[in-house]
Amino acid sequence: MKTVSSASAYRTFLRELLSFGFVGFLGTLIMIFGANLMRARLGGSPVTSVVVPAVVSTLTSYLANRFWTFRHRDSDGSGREVVIFFALNGVGLLIQVLCTGFTYYTLGLHGGVAYNLGLLAGVALGSAFRYWSYKKWVFTPATA
């Protein structure tokens, strides 16, 4: 039998996960459309084409996660949260760049489908890392 506390915790977790997923979906759209635009239309390299949209996506994701997904969690207002968020996003970006670079340079797959599959694999792995790390180090539980 579930207690009221555990049911509430489950609902909070589910709401956070769904909100995080939606924010991630928007960030992914920014990433994919931006990366493909830079690569196909502006002639950017496969790696540069991931980095620039990732910065735009990261800023959008921070604002949406802080003021929507994790709004009920503490924010010390000191800038520590922002610095840690961007540092952890740097790790997530590194995961994405490694997947894209591995697909393009190591596997030698240069087509659009392979590029996007490598990009999506990186986004998925990077997102899993981000969700875990944000809850652990950035958007900490509100203190009583």
Keywords summarizing the entry:
4 helices, mainly alpha, single chain, 144 residues
Describe this structure in words.
The chain is an all-alpha fold and 144 residues long. It contains 4 helices and no strands. The model has no long low-confidence stretch (mean pLDDT 84).
Alpha-beta classification: mainly alpha
Number of helices: 4
Main β-sheet description: none
Rg from C-alpha positions? 17 Å
Number of E strands:
0
Proportion of strand residues: under 5%
What's the shape? Answer: elongated
| Range of helix content | over 70%
Which oligomeric form is depicted? single chain
End-to-end Cα distance? 27 Å
Following the backbone from N to C, one meets helices and strands in this order, namely HHHH
Summarize model confidence as the mean pLDDT.
84
Give the uncertain stretches in residue-range form. Answer: none
Summarize the structure.
This protein has 144 residues and is an all-alpha fold. The protein has 4 helices and no strands. The longest helix is centred in the N-terminal third of the chain and has 38 residues.
Chart the SSEs and their pairings.
Layout: H1 4-41, H2 48-69, H3 80-106, H4 112-138
Helix pairs in contact: 1-2, 1-4, 2-3, 3-4
